[in-house]
UniProtKB/TrEMBL annotation:
Family designation: Belongs to the RMI1 family.
Domain RMI1 N-terminal: 15-61
Phylogenetic placement of the source organism: Eukaryota, Fungi, Dikarya, Ascomycota, Pezizomycotina
Entry's Gene Ontology BP terms: double-strand break repair via homologous recombination; resolution of meiotic recombination intermediates
Gene3D superfamilies assigned to the protein according to its UniProt record, in alphabetical order: RecQ-mediated genome instability protein Rmi1, C-terminal domain
SMART domains named among the record's database cross-references: DUF1767
Record's GO cellular component terms: nuclear body; RecQ family helicase-topoisomerase III complex
Ranges of residues in domain RecQ mediated genome instability protein 1 OB-fold: 71-203, 225-270
Chain spans, region Disordered: 128-156
Protein name: RecQ-mediated genome instability protein 1
Amino acid sequence: MPAMHPLHNQVSSALQTRHNISVNPHWLDTFLTSRGPNPPPLPALISTAHFRILASDITTTVSPRGTAEAFPEGISDVNVKERRLEGTVIAQVLDVLDVGSSKWSQVEAIERVERGEEVRGREVIRTVNGMGNDNNEGDAGSVNATAAPPPGGGTIAPSSTTLSSAAKKLSVGPHKLLLQDARGTKVLAFELVKIPKIELSTSASAALPPSARNLGTATLPEDPGMFIGCKLLLKPDTVVRRGVIMLTPDRCVVLGGKVEAWDKKWKEERKQRLTALIGEENATGSG
């Protein structure tokens, strides 16, 4: 067995003590070796390693020290009325669904962003550069007329303010999540009580409006909601009921992070998945 990097134990101990992360020894040695013969100071190494773990697949970067740091065998068994996690488990989010809003309303929210529209109160408003009414701006109760198209026809380009405000609308939930532990075990989870940072941006999955794409430089701002690959820390005694983890603020901590490739694919397919779920529900209802 090859010798460990001289800083291995210090970094590993710090990640365990500060963040409850049992890092994979092989991954950590590879990471430390990649820093070269003159690595940065220890605090910087620890911080960078922590960031890399949050941005990676924990099945390759985290190694549970015992069965208590992973989901128990048969955790998804719906025949087990209730059980509790024995230890602290790090899990990553593979999917998230806002079950507090209808799927159709979520599809509509995505499409409004794609058209460069936003919602204020009960109104749907198209915001136009240089044509807004300062007296009505930001007033949810005001009456706003639909702007006339530009001379010669064509579409009206949404302002950056429109795109930004649309992206900042967040789901309230509750949310249903698909989680995975470091050993690859997957299980559903339900947000029983509102947990800070578990939320979705209504613009997640929305493509850039055609009028904005034509400008060449416009881009949608970064979504403020939860990302796919986000890491959660589940504390001991977290309740698992009928094969579903019950998430509550006292037992669940959102650590953050994102696996870029997963998040990109999830957003590209979100609208399609929601539409498919609507079709399945309609088919079941009509049957």
